[in-house]
Amino acid sequence: MDQVWSHYKEALDEVEEQIKKGLDSEVPLINQVAYHILNSGGKRIRPLLLIISAQLCSSIDKRHIMLAGMTEFIHTATLLHDDVLDNAEIRRGIPAARMLWGNQASILVGDYLYTLAVCQAVKMENFEINYLLSTTCRRMSEGETLQLVHSRDLNLTEATYLQIIEYKTAALLSASCKLGGIIGSESDERKEALSRYGRNLGIAFQVADDTLDYVADRARLGKTPGRDIKEGKVTLPLLHLLQHCSSKEKTELKKIIKKGAYRKKDLSQVIELMERYGSITYARQKAQDYANRAKNDLAIFNDSIHRQALCSVADYVVRRDH
Amino acid sequence: MDQVWSHYKEALDEVEEQIKKGLDSEVPLINQVAYHILNSGGKRIRPLLLIISAQLCSSIDKRHIMLAGMTEFIHTATLLHDDVLDNAEIRRGIPAARMLWGNQASILVGDYLYTLAVCQAVKMENFEINYLLSTTCRRMSEGETLQLVHSRDLNLTEATYLQIIEYKTAALLSASCKLGGIIGSESDERKEALSRYGRNLGIAFQVADDTLDYVADRARLGKTPGRDIKEGKVTLPLLHLLQHCSSKEKTELKKIIKKGAYRKKDLSQVIELMERYGSITYARQKAQDYANRAKNDLAIFNDSIHRQALCSVADYVVRRDH
């Protein structure tokens, strides 16, 4: 994966410049808050996917750099709102924006970054791009709301869980890949293949993320593990555990999930049960399945360094430890 | 003004239908929250302005109805976020959405309504419309952030106050008017006249609103008066008072503003001082000045029932008692 990052470094550096240049509000607080979160060490996975997809289709030009910056603005807008929704104190190992500037600023700068992305998209005067980005953003807010609706829902099904993560996470990753093909004027078939690749990759990414929340090392994760269960998010490992543990254990788990703010030993107990019932293994395998599907989606493209790069990204998202 | 409402009733009824039809998310909670606030008795001033402006320019068709619905979605999105920012308990005489479904749902449904409006705008495939709506939304979030920056700022100038309300309120009213001219393919000159009318009307509207916060009757206002000073919003009447009262009174006012959650008698004291120093009269006059400017902006149009209607709206926004 290191090779992938370095191969596209030049374009990604241009994206960084683009992001910095975009933060030009006449209200300094907006630039300050946005700069804080945009420079907190995000992986830039969406820009990377867009750049590789563009190269896979033809070559990159400054419109791809613009679009890559927009995907990061949209992603960052959701992070600012997520941190308010989740009362998060830490993001990527540093204080969340809301801890430094408050919830109000986080909500408003989130709103701003989203409108900034829309403004930039509109300027490109390409309806296909505008249509894709706007429907993606709508899907994302639907996914977040669906997650809220199913907060602490012990009867959440795997199908609904997958719908939630497809909407809240995979939609933007899918759009990032497809955008690479739109400007390259690819055939609908090839654009759809990129879209499917991004969707499956996105699901793999989120399932891996949800698993890491239970097993990752605190320092590497950049946030406190076990946050999901604390916030009432029933994710795949927990969902699997609830479906396979004994009824006595289930009663115990219900108590832990319902009360939300639990003790450290509650989390250890949950993780121990997950290990015993293979819930972590199950979730990891599920993530790998989706990563494999993503790689298969690329079969339509000739083998190339760029197709290989997308395959490496698919492997990376499920194997990373943070 | 009653005549104005009834003259455009048919088109406004179509806008209501359009709004209802637009709430078709597959996530029922979104429709429920959005329906609650959209049916809480909002005046629909933005749709009204758009419809009158369209008629003034040519005639209305279904695109104007669509656009009018969008302005209301955008407005409603900001209300949902505002209520979270302000910890508001009541909106238009009924519980704020956040009191019924929580802050999280209010933030997310606000995000959704905004993206819904963008999706609908994109479908119209008109760059001028998309450009206007997206820059307007960016301005609005800048205005809200600027207001936050100047929270409890005793040195706020009238110029900055006017900038805040121009961005947070007048921008969307201005856009609503201009949209009426865009589809009618009006000359740039006439579109700009509509835009200026809406901007000045919007400033008049917000100054009047900020004055009503001190003097309106609770029942008619649909919310508790005196909220602005409680939330640290320094608006025109208070700004005027701070500039004209004695230094002893200023010290007392500072205390009241700083502590935020003050007693009922603090508010009475502030209002009494405002009456004594003519701050309410000053703010009312300022609102009237902007309403007059708005009316003058229409000089470019021939006299017609529609031009008269826009003048009536200008008078109405400064004379209303809630």
What would you note in describing this structure?
Two copies of one chain form a homodimer. The first copy, chain A, is an all-alpha fold and 322 residues long. Chain A has one domain (2-319): Farnesyl Diphosphate Synthase (Orthogonal Bundle), CATH 1.10.600. Chain A contains 16 helices and two strands. In chain A, strands 1-2 form a two-stranded antiparallel ribbon. In chain A, strand 1 (90-91) and strand 2 (94-95) form a beta hairpin. The longest helix of chain A has 28 residues, at 188-215. The A-B interface holds A 25-27, 29-30, 81, 84-85, 103-105, 107-109, 111-112, 114-116, 118-119, 121-123, 125, 127, 130-131, 134-135, 137-138, 140-142, 144-146, 148-149 and B 25-27, 29-30, 81, 84-85, 103-105, 107-109, 111-112, 114-116, 118-119, 121-123, 125, 127, 130-131, 134-135, 137-138, 140-142, 144-146, 148-149.
